[in-house]
Each structure stands twice: as C-alpha cells, then as structure tokens.
Design a protein that fits this description.
The structure is a homotetramer of 343-residue chains.
Chain A (H helix, E strand, L loop, with lengths): L1 E6 L3 H12 L3 E8 L4 H8 L6 E3 L5 H6 L6 E2 H7 L2 E4 L5 H12 L2 E4 L10 E3 L13 E4 L2 H17 L1 E11 L15 E2 L5 H9 L4 E9 L5 E9 L7 H9 L4 E4 L8 H11 L9 E4 L4 E3 L2 E8 L5 H12 L6 H12 L7
Parallel strand pairs in A: 1-2, 1-5, 2-3, 3-4, 5-6, 6-8, 7-8, 9-11, 13-14
Antiparallel strand pairs in A: 9-12, 10-11, 12-16, 14-16, 15-16
Helix pairs in contact in A: 1-10, 6-7, 10-11
Chain lengths: 343, 343, 343, 343
C-alpha cells in the first residue's frame, strides 16, 4: 500500500485527497493545511474522514476553538508517507520541497509551481515513462492536461505534427471573490503557455495558441486545429473513433443537451458525483470539422478536477507501481470509474 | 408507508425525488417525465435508482434506443400513489390535476402553477395547520419559502407587523442557456409577488418589496427590514438568538469566509451534499443591523433546493401524518439532517 | 446627392442613419419605425435631427402623446429616396422588399435577413464590384464583415487559401434584457455560418470554424488560423505590415492597455465617439503568431457599428457612385474619419 | 473666471475636466497625469483639447515618443489655478494636498480619499452652505451622492427621519480588468459606509443599510425605505411629485423601456451624450410603494458621472461663487443641461 499525503486542502487538494482515497492500492495518510478555511470546516462537519496535520505557522488554537482535531505537524505527516501531493499556493511548494528532500520523500507538484521545482514535467498518457522512479514531478496545468489528452489521442493513433489552439478560459472558480472579470474578454500575450507546455511534453509537435479569459466559472473550452503528421489527413470519422475509445474523454452532442460548458457541470451534479465534479474532458461530436489537411474540434475542460487522474498516474510512475502508461492509466481509471459510463 | 410519485424530473423534480427517498416514512414509487433529457440520462447512468414512468405524449422509442427502462404510463404511476408532487413545467400541473382528481389522488404543486390550482397555498412553518387533510396544496416559490422561514421565525418569537424586502434575484439556474442576463440588473414592477405571497400566508403582516434580477446562477439574496409588532423593538441580539435556533436557517459570518451567495454553494459541494445542494437558507450574522424600531438583515436562498423540506412538510399535512407544524417539521428535518450541523 | 432612407431605428438603424448623415455625397431623407421606443424617445430629446416616418401598423396617437413629430408614412419615405437601408427585425425586411420593388427603389438588407432576399451578398472590400448597379444587396453580418476585412487584407497582398476560425461571440448588446447568458459558454454546431458566409464572398478560400457564445455585451473576439496560398508562408512581419496599412483595422498592443474587448469600447467612449462606437476592427499585434505555414491572429469586432462602413460602400456600389472598391472605400473612409488616427 | 485644474485623468478625472469645460464661468487650465494611459492617448487622438501637465515621477520621454505635448509640471499647473479637483488614485490626493497647501490653492477630493483629507465632507444639495469659502472639500462617493439627492429631495419637502437602504452595487467600471466578480453576489459588513456617510452629511437622519456587489459594470441600484419625520406618512403621490421636480433626478417607467440599469446607459448613448454618460440618477416611478408609514423606492446611480454636478457645486461653494445651494445648483444645472429634458 503506497502511503500518500496531501499538502494544501484547497480546490485541488480536496480533490486530490478524494482521488487517492478511491485508489485501492494507495492509502491517504492525511492532509495538511494552515488555517480553518471553509474547506476544513466542511471536513469537520463531515466528521473528519481524513486526518488533518498543521503546516508551520498554523495557529492550533483556532482549530481547537472550532473543535477540529489535528493529528500532528507537517513534519509528522511527511514522516509517514512515501509521496506528497503538493497543492499549496503558488511558490509554497518550492519551499516545501526542501522538507521533502530532507525526509527523502517524493513529491508531485501542481501547475502553480515553476517547472524548475521538478525533475520531470509530467502527463499520464503523453510521457508516463519519463516519470518512472523520478523523485519530483510537476503536473501539467488543467488546460494543458486536458488538451494533451485529446492531442495525444490523435497523435498516438494517426500522428500529429502541428496544432493551433484557442483557449476560451474560465476566469475564476465557483466561490471565488478575489479574482473575476465582469463583462469583458481578456486576451493574453500569444503564444499561450499551454501551447509551449504541450511542446515540452510532446516535443515532436509544433504548437501555438491564443488564450482569452471569459467571465464564467466552470469549464474552459478549447478549440484545436490539428495537422496530421506529414500532411496525412485525419478525417472527421477517424478523429471521432479515436476520441470515443479514450477513457478520459466523454464524447457528447449538442442535440443531447450538452449545449456548453455548464451542461457538464449540471450533468455531473445530476450524476451524484461528489462536488459535481467530472474527471473526463468533454468533446463535442458536432464540433469536429475538416479544413484542408486539418481537423478542428472543441473540448471542455473541468478545471477543478481534470488533473486528478493524471496526478494518480504520477504517483504510479514515481513509485514504479506500473511499468508503462497503458497499465498505469488503466489502474487509475478503474478506481475512478473512468470509461465505465460507456458500459 | 406513504406512497409518493413525482411528475416532472427537472431541476425541482429531481430534488423532490431525492427528498422523498430520504424520508423513512415515505416510499418513492417513481418519477414521470416526457423525454430523455440530460437529467433522465444521468438517472440511467446512475443505474436507475428510481422507477421511471412516461407521461402522455412521450415517445417510448427514444427511451428504448438509449436503453432506459420504463415501468409504465403516467396513469400507472398515479394509480400506485397516495400523493403526487407535481413539478411539471408551468401550466402543465393544472392539466395533470384533472388526472389526479379522477384517480382520487392528492397533489402538491410547485411555485410555477397559479395559486388557483390548489385549495391551500402552503408553507411548512407558517401555515401547516391549514394544509391538514387538504387534497391540493401549492408550495410557495423558492424566494417566498426562504423569506417566510426568517420572518415567521421572528414573528413566532417576538411578533412582526411589517416587512419591506429587497430581492436580489439570481436570473437563471446553473446549466440554463434559454434564459439569462448579461451585464444588466433588471427591475420588476413593485410590489414584488413575493411580498404579496407572504401576506397571503401570513395575513397579519403587511409586506412590500422590490425585486431586481442579477446575472448570477446560484442563490438569491434578500434584505429584510422588519418592524416589530406594535413598534416593539427587536434588537440585533434577539434576532440572532431566534435565527440560531431555527433548524432550516444556517447563521454564518463574513469573516469565516461566507462572503456571498457562491460561498454556500461551494461549502455544500465541499460537504459532499448531492449536487452541492443546501436545504437551509443562509443568514449573515454580520448583516443584522437596527434602524429605529426596525431590524434589518440579509439571507441567502438556494433556489434549487430550498422548497424541498417544506414540500415534505406538505406531504405530512395533506396526509395528516403529523398534527402540527412542530412535529411535522421535526420529522422532515430529522430525515434531511437539518439542524444536525449545530450538534 | 444620393437620397437614402433607413427602415428600423434600432441598434443598427440608428448607426446607419448616423453613418449616412456623415457622407457628404448622400442625404438622409428620414428614418421609419413602428413604435416610440427608447431610441425614438432619445431622438425626440435630441430635437429630432432626423425626420421620422411611420411604418404600417404604427399607432400615431402614441407618438402624438409624446409630442414626437412624424413626417408621413413608410410609403412617403420610400417615395422620396433612391435607396433604403433596411435594418428591420429579422423577416420584416423580406416583406418590405415588396414595397421597395413596387416603388422601384433599391435596398440593402442587414445580416438578419435570409441571403435569398438579395441579389448579391456583399462586402465593401471583398466583392464590391459584384454589387455595382445591383438592386438588392445583403450585407454580411457583423462577425463576417470584420473577419473578411482581415482575411481579405492578407489575401489581397499575399494570397490565402484556407482559414479556420474560432468565434468568441458576445451574446447580447448593451441594454438587452430579452436575451443573455449567465455563467455559461454556449457552443453552436460547427461549421459556423460565418465560415460558410466567408466562402460565399471569397469563393477561392476554404473556411471552417467553431462559434462559442460568451456572457459579455461588447465586442466579439475571433481567432484566425490562415494558410498562405499554395503553402506560401505569411510571416508575422508580413501580416503586421498589411494590417497596419488597412484603414478599417486598428492595430493595438496589450501593453498599451488594450487588454481585451472592453478596452475598445472604453477607448471609443474616451475619444468622444458618438455612443462609444468604433467602426474599425481591432487587431492585437501581440496575438500574431506563426505555426508552420500558418499565421494566427486575434481580432475584435465592435458588433454594433462594424457593418456601417461596408453598408455605405454598398450604397456606393448599388448606385454606381464609384466604379471600384478602392475608390468607394476611400470615400466612405474619408467621411467616417477612418484611418485618420494614423495621421 | 475661476481657474480650475484636474489631477488624475482617469474615469472620474476625464469627466471632471469635461464638466468644468462646460461651465461658462470657469476655465479649465489643464489636467495632470503620470503616464500615457489609454485616456491620455485618446486625448491626443482628439487633438489635445485640454492642456496636459506631468506629475512628479512621470517619464516625459514616453509622452514625447507618442507625440503628446506637455505644458509643464504639476507645480506649474497648481501655480495657475484657483482650485484643484483631485481625482488621483486613493491616497495620492492626501500627498498632493501638501502641494496645494504650499501654493495656497484650494482643492476638492473625490470619494477615494479619507474624510480627514478635507475640512468638510460635501454634497451640493444637502450641505452646500457648509462648504462656503472652505479650502478643502471632499465629495461624497458615487452611491452616497445619488442616494442623498433622493433622500434630501424628500426631506426638504416633507421631512425624513430614518432610511434603510439596500445597495445593489456594480462591481467594476466598463473597461476594468483588474477587478471583477464572476457569477457571485458579494456582501459587505453592515452597516454600509454609504449609510454612515449619509448621517455625516444629514445628521438629523438615522440611516443603516446593506451592500451587495453584483457582476455588472454600469449603474448601481439602491432601494430606499424612508420613514417620514415623526411618522408623518409620505404617500406615493407626494414622493413622485417631489422627485419629478428635481433637476438631477430622471423619473422613468419600466413600461417605457427603462427595464434596468443598462437602459440608462443605452439611452444616454442614444442621446449622443459624451461617453454615454448621464449626470442624473434614475428613479423608477413603478418602484415606489408604501409600507405602513414608510415609503420605498429604487434609484439608479450612473457611477462614472454622478458626482460631476456636485463637484461643480463644490467649486462654487469653495470659491463663494454663489451664496446658497439653490443658486449654485441652478448654475451648475444650466451649464450641464440638467432638467432641460423636462422641457
């Protein structure tokens, strides 16, 4: 049983903890945080299903006042695990790394940290083998994770040598007040970092792209224009077949009622998924169109939860639980119920 | 065991079904709908925990094509129940009523129907006794339901003779595309129907109010200016004490992180509540202020789920399961876990 | 002096009237509408700078009650003009056409009408010559008009044989309450009509695209992936040079403060432009990137006003005021002050 | 001719400059700013109708590079004026005050500064006389300015001794990207500062209130519950008559098309008002309702421009141009065209 800890119980940390909890070959030793945030209060109201440890600087009296039990210090947690999933606020992960190194514990950092924090920039499908046995991995960000799923899916089957992407980005998470955008679309300098990151993970693909922030809270939409390897045409039918066979891609239709990003969230809520989360990216069948040698399509990225499966893959790679991407992703998918909905 | 059916498996119908399912003294016989909507598809993907019946006009072949099993017709469902919860689209409930009357089955209609569809316009706390044994009840709308909870709470304890309300209304539900508002606040003709409805349920209170639609999807906020009976002052402390003792009111603070309507939704998601729903209204301790004889405060109304408890109360009244509001609401609260969070 | 009338004094009609008013070689005979809308009331408050005629079905007593003077019937207006600009609600233009035909008057229809209403689907730069002397023109829609400006600009100079576009569409105009979108991105079935329309106007270009509605009110953003003719590469520098020389394209930079669509609106307000309108499309210098043989860039489309210049061009074509696109657009630009800002 | 300068040419500063420019008994000597912002670039593109001075720390070479002429330093501007209107970013005004004091120049600060920066907290109608001859005034904020207009209007005619307000606040200005709110309503700790500020200006009125931020960019809406002096009832008709006679209040109806805050902005654009601005607050006739002794109504506050008239009044007070509120506001109104629309 691989022992796992989670540092930072925020939007991502909560979901990482839940994800590990579902992996039957892993044990969630505990989570660590700094203050009795709403997320910690909710954990308390649920009856403390996960053990809580306090990071340095935490004021234990505040937890005591609320009757929230703590199991020890951050060092205590690190001392009990094989690997830490670090979803601390940006920059804190780099500091935490010193503690991990001292304790001889592996770690996986989330997208907010600089690439230099890790030995390998990681994606469960596109470069699993590079992460085998490595001490420090950094996961691709939510957009990049989902984007690569779809590009890798086509590339693996047919070959892709170039993509141009347009990211229609949600600007804040549900419940955020500290950031937002009101009646504005905001452009970022091109090329977007997601295109650059894709090239780091898939160096044989040329990528560029433009990112526009939009005032919504759930689900990025990305359009992808992909050029088949050596100009070999990928038809609509070929693309659709590949996408339908991927266990982390949910192919949907506008006419079934999946009219936009909010439909996935509503559907996941109706499914009874915890937090209304969905691990799969969505891919609209009615968005796939051909243009010359190119194939174009649109995907939906559930930003809060999309990186969870690939992080589970990362644990498998770092701890050499499975030797290759196919067997590792299959284990992760089994425990998260991915692909099950296809029957 | 009281047998219950639900007509219309949309935003409200799904939650009514879930609510009935949790009442240990009720049996959910089944739900009825017209088309394989996303909500029905989600039910299928979950493994059909509820039996499905088809209303007249439904095309069974569409359900068959998707492998969605149906247990019979709408008449079949009506024939098996003691009471129907009708959450059909506005206007359809009035037509369904003819079927209910023919079958000698009671029914509770939701806010979208005209008041004339029912014998009694109902609220579980404010006029439970009027619903005892009645055949056709109509529930107050989401805003009115939550508003009355708070006004009845003060009135019951201290007496209230006048309220002036400002409703800051969410304009659409999460996942809606057919209605919305973009960068605009839209006023409705005053007085708002919620103020008029409150006077129907609580005829000893004079009420008026203004409603403004805002471009958000979860949680109305209402400010209430209440005047104590005969000018008797209700202080901040008195109000707070009453609110804290109510099992369907969740008193929160800005400084704990409940910064607005989105916080309740995020908190309920983190609690693991199905669909991220919350049955309680929120009430901000830091919003309560005095002004002369008046007391002013702000509440949050989770529009998708707030009417579920009062509808369960309605079943109890119509079928005389409990003789008074106190015992009926206590049963409902027990099964829905309301008030439990206070320990 | 060419005599012009405007039917429908709404969002577009008001701006068409203003545009004609500025053309020194045209006379705005009057405008026609059905009811004393806010736009008509504003015209009254401004002192009736334009003559008002009433379309069939209008209730003159309502205008009288407000002291709004009317100069006659729709037929009276049609009888005094050489050409009508029809910006009536969708579908009404087709009916009005019968009146225009009977009176032997030419007309230009806006994007809301079906293509079949007109003899030629028109764009001032891309197919001016096809409109010469033609009786009935239909203007491209706002997105298509702006998109074609940019594609034609590259095509004219370097040749373009293929484009793949992503339209990030504003869902409503400022002041709209009857349509809107709240916290959702909504996809349309691909390929978008704008891509198809582009191919009608520029038949030598292959085009496809995906459209996503977003909850904002001013300014569509379109990303374009363009493939040089025969694979001949258009570099970033080549594209920039062409764009900078176009009088209806305003090249801007993020670092100057043009951070998104709302910046154009604010800038136009600060310029003192009537209604805060801008006739130019915006093009971000920092968005232009190369990808293999392709060039990618982002433009901003001010949806309320972008079609005005091309409609002025249409009058020039239909009435053969100028023989070719270059001289016609130069006249229009001169009167609208387009390109002046470059000094 | 009173000589006026403006420090800070942002959202408010631009409008202050325009306002002074329209006062025939004042001269706008110039404006001062730090960097070639979009607003300064727009001034340049308009042909520099106002003289520009550079505040300390400005990099003149950046202005030179853009061909933007500067007339001198901030000290030069201060040396030429009788009074400065300071609309610098919050906190800067307090520093600038030292320069004003040294130069013996009066100043009016905007809402962003602390009250302590000024000798008198000022409103043109409610306490004009307190500002007579005073060196340093601070204007009420946009919400407070508009709110007081309406409360003073009733108080002056009928007497008011108590108000409870709900502020439905726009969270950002058009063109803002650095602040915003997405799909959330955010509450502030009660009582709101606007209620407290009202009591400072109108000490005989007891006021409290709750403020909720909403994701829109133009126009706050405030509901007011007002209690007549000594319980003397103000009827709907009495209130309406008073409001209709006020030259800075525009009484409108829902049925005329003023459906919400966005209608005022659209109407002002259609009027041809520069920037689509409106100096008047809006007041919905259909929002006025009675509740016991109380009168309730809703107003619209155009946040960008509403303080301009009262700032002009402030100049008149500080420099003793008129001896009382009635004559001062009449002069301001005449030059700004306020009340003209009533004929």
């Amino acid at each position: 049983m691989v022992k796992v800890g989670v540092a930072g119980y925020g939007v991502i940390g909560q979901r990482l903890a839940d994800g590990v909890f579902l992996q039957k070959d892993m044990e969630l030793v505990g989570i660590a945080d700094l203050a009795p945030t709403l997320s910690i209060r909710a954990l308390k109201e649920k009856g403390m299903p996960y053990n809580l440890y306090l990071v340095d600087g935490a004021d234990k009296s505040k937890f005591d006042a609320l009757g929230i039990p703590c199991q020890g210090s951050f060092a205590d947690l690190i001392g009990k695990v094989d690997i830490m999933l670090d979803s601390s606020p940006g920059g804190v992960g780099a500091k935490n790394k010193e503690l991990y190194e001292k304790a001889g514990v592996k770690a996986i950092f989330q997208g907010g940290e600089k690439n230099s924090v890790a030995d390998v920039f990681f994606h469960g499908y596109a470069n699993y083998e590079k992460g085998l046995g490595v001490n420090y991995l950094k996961l691709t960000s939510c957009n990049t994770t989902g984007l690569i799923r779809s590009v890798d899916c086509l590339d693996r089957k047919y070959g892709v040598d170039r993509v141009a992407i347009t990211i229609i980005r949600r600007v804040a998470d549900p419940g955020d007040y500290h950031r937002g955008l009101t009646n504005a679309l905001q452009l970022e300098k091109a090329p977007s970092h997601q295109a650059l990151d894709l090239m780091t993970i898939m160096p044989h693909v040329e990528a560029t792209g433009i990112l526009v922030h939009t005032p919504v809270t759930h689900g990025h939409i990305i359009t992808v224009v992909a050029h088949g390897k050596g100009g070999k045409k990928i038809t609509r039918e070929m693309a659709l077949e590949a996408f339908k066979n991927h266990n982390r891609i949910r192919v949907v239709c506008l006419e079934d009622g999946f009219l936009g990003n909010a439909s996935f969230f509503r559907y996941a809520r109706d499914l009874g998924n915890p937090r209304g989360d969905m691990y799969e990216i969505g891919l609209w069948e009615d968005s796939i169109v051909e243009s010359g040698d190119d194939i174009m399509y649109a995907i939906n990225i559930p930003q809060e939860s999309v990186t969870i499966p690939e992080t589970m893959d990362g644990i498998r790679a770092a701890l050499k639980m499975q030797a290759d991407s196919a067997s590792a992703t299959a284990e992760t998918n089994k425990y998260l119920g991915l692909g099950k909905w296809k029957k």
